[in-house]
Design brief:
Largest sheet: none
Distance between the termini: 35 Å
Number of domains: 1
Structural class: mainly alpha
Oligomer: single chain
Shape: elongated
Order of helices and strands: HH
Mean pLDDT: 88
Length: 98
Amino acid sequence: MFEFRDLFQWDRFITPGIIKTFYWLVIALIILFGISGVFSGLAAMAISPFAGFLVVLYSLAGIIVGIVSSRIAAEFILIVFRINEHLGAIRDQGSAPR
């Protein structure tokens, strides 16, 4: 993970360690909102069965799309930091005396 002193130094990025925690928090929120949508759809079925069914389907689809989208976003951020690390290693190799 990271240490408290890393917050005041610019030698190491702390985002790659934190992004995984945010990813799981986003997943939890997506699931909670999706379950809320499913219950809303079930309640709406008392008024209009077809509309309630559509809300349930859209909520389930929203859960799946949200999980996939958040994973793609988290991986993109991690890839950007990994590219930075690799470019730094290439720069360090090039500046070494031969």
